C-alpha cells in the first residue's frame, strides 16, 4: 500500500498513494527530504510520461501536527500536492489534502477537507480522462463515520508505518478513504451524465516478507481508485525493514504500467 495517479486524473494515484515515507518515532519534530521518479507507459508505451521531483515530510509530535508536500514535473505533466493533518494518540488524522496538476495540458485538482468538530468531510475535484479529456467534477459533503477512522491515502501510509491502522483477524490492515463515486465497470474515458458524488470506501491490504530479498511487500488492489486498474492485477509495493517505501510496480489495462522509485536525501 501506500504519497499521486488518482482515479480522477490518471497520474495522481501513484504519487499521492505511494510516496509517503515513514516518520521517525524517536524525534518529536523531524523533517525528511526525498527525491522520486514515476515512469508511466500507456497503450503499450504509445504514450509515456516521466515525473521527477522532490518530497518533504514534516512531523511535529509535540505540536500534534504533520505536513507532507511534493512536486514534480516532466514532459507534458506537472503535479503539486500538499497534505496537512493532526496527530492524536499517535494516530495521523488528515485535515486537508490539496493537489493540482496538468496532464497533456489539462488541469486537474483535488481538495478534501476534514472537519472533526462538525463531523463532516468536504470533497471537491475536477479531473479529465487521459485519452479523450472528458471532464469529471465532484462537489460533495459526507458525514464522517463514527465507527471507523477515516484517512486520506497519505495519512493511511503514515498510520501503517506507525502501526496505527486497524488489523483484521486475517492479518489485513484496514482503514477507510473518501473518493469519487463511480460505477464498478467504469472505463477510462466513461463519464456520468447525472454528475458525480463522493463516497467512503474501505481500503484493505496485507503485508508479507519476500523470502528471497527479505523486503516487506504488499499487493494492493487499486480498482477502488482508478478506472485503469483491475483486481486481477494488484500493484506490488516494497518497503525496507522500517517500512520506508522503496518501489511500486503496477500493471494496468490496455498495456499500461506505472513504476515508482523513492530515494532518501543525503
Separate helix tally: 2
Cα-to-Cα separation, first versus last residue: 25 Å
Order of helices and strands: HEEEEEEEEEHEEEEEEE
Stretches where pLDDT falls below 50 for ≥5 residues? 1-18
Overall 3D form:
globular
Broad structural category: mainly beta
Overall description:
This protein is mainly beta and 266 residues long. It has one domain. Helix content is 6%, strand content 53%. The chain has a 16-stranded mixed β-sheet that branches. A hairpin with a 5-residue loop joins strand 14 and strand 15. It starts with 11 loop residues before the first helix and ends with a strand.
What are the salient characteristics of this protein?
266 residues; mainly beta; 16-stranded mixed β-sheet; 2 helices; 6% helix; globular; disordered N terminus
Write the layout of secondary structure elements.
Elements: H1 12-18, E1 29-42, E2 47-60, E3 65-74, E4 77-88, E5 91-103, E6 106-115, E7 120-128, E8 135-143, E9 150-151, H2 153-161, E10 166-167, E11 173-180, E12 198-209, E13 216-220, E14 235-239, E15 245-251, E16 257-264
Summarize the structure.
By secondary structure, the protein is mainly beta.
Amino acid at each position: 500500500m501506500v504519497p499521486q495517479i488518482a482515479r480522477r486524473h490518471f497520474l495522481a494515484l501513484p504519487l499521492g498513494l505511494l510516496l509517503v515515507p515513514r516518520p521517525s518515532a524517536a524525534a518529536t519534530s523531524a523533517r525528511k527530504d526525498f527525491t522520486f521518479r514515476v515512469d508511466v507507459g500507456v497503450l503499450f508505451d504509445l504514450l509515456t510520461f516521466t515525473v521527477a521531483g522532490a518530497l518533504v515530510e514534516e512531523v511535529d509530535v509535540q505540536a500534534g501536527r504533520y505536513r507532507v508536500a511534493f512536486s514534480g514535473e516532466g514532459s507534458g505533466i506537472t503535479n503539486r500536492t500538499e497534505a496537512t493533518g493532526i496527530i492524536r494518540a499517535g494516530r495521523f488524522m488528515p485535515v486537508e489534502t490539496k493537489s493540482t496538476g496538468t496532464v497533456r495540458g489539462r488541469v486537474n485538482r483535488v481538495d478534501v477537507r476534514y472537519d472533526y468538530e462538525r463531523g463532516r468531510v468536504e470533497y471537491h475535484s475536477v479531473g479529465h480522462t487521459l485519452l479523450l479529456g472528458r471532464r469529471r467534477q465532484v462537489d460533495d459533503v459526507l458525514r464522517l463515520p463514527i465507527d471507523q477512522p477515516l484517512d486520506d491515502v497519505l495519512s493511511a501510509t503514515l498510520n501503517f508505518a506507525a502501526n496505527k491502522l486497524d488489523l483484521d483477524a486475517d492479518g489485513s490492515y484496514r482503514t477507510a478513504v473518501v473518493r469519487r463515486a463511480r460505477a464498478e465497470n467504469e472505463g477510462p474515458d466513461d463519464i456520468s451524465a447525472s454528475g458525480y458524488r463522493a463516497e467512503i470506501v474501505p481500503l484493505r491490504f496485507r503485508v508479507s516478507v519476500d523470502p528471497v530479498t527479505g523486503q516487506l511487500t504488499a499487493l494492493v488492489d487499486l480498482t477502488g481508485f482508478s478506472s485503469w486498474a483491475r483486481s486481477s492485477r494488484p500493484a506490488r509495493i516494497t518497503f525496507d525493514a522500517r517500512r520506508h517505501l522503496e518501489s511500486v510496480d503496477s500493471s494496468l489495462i490496455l498495456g499500461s504500467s506505472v513504476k515508482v522509485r523513492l530515494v532518501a536525501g543525503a
